[in-house]
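The records we work with from here on pair a chain with its fold. Taken together, the tokens spell out the fold as the letters spell out the chain. To see the layout at work, look at the sequence and tokens printed below.
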Amino acid sequence: MHPVQINTLTNLDELCYNPCMREKTIRTRPSVCCTIADPGSLDAAALARYATLLDALADPTRLGIINLLANNHEPVCVCDITAQFDKGQPTISHHLSILREAGLVHGTREGIWSFFTLDHERLAELQAMLAEVYRPLRGQPLPLISSPVPAPSQNIARSA
């Protein structure tokens, strides 16, 4: 184990705690430790608003509903949405309610039927947020996996 040089406490901003060490020691940090060059341009309110949007999308059924609505230019009846999923009408209505509360879809009623459309402005806002988060990469493609993930059957070793 290397000896740790303990320096006098002069500036808390220049100190770093090493969680890997068993003993509690105070060391001066290297100049590159614990610094944030650019905290980004999104404030706490914007982050909370976008987290709500992303939380609403963080479900396969809700993403499927968004995809279904995006591929139809006319309002889609809830009965047609339900028919596309292996879920009951109450579950689909619950997911639509979450999407509606997040402002991602709009619903209208015609008699006993409900019809849904995407809120394209809200989706454009989400797209702009993602562009802002990846602002340092403007003009560059987003980092992608260079090759597709092999199918599960290709990962299984064959026995002789």
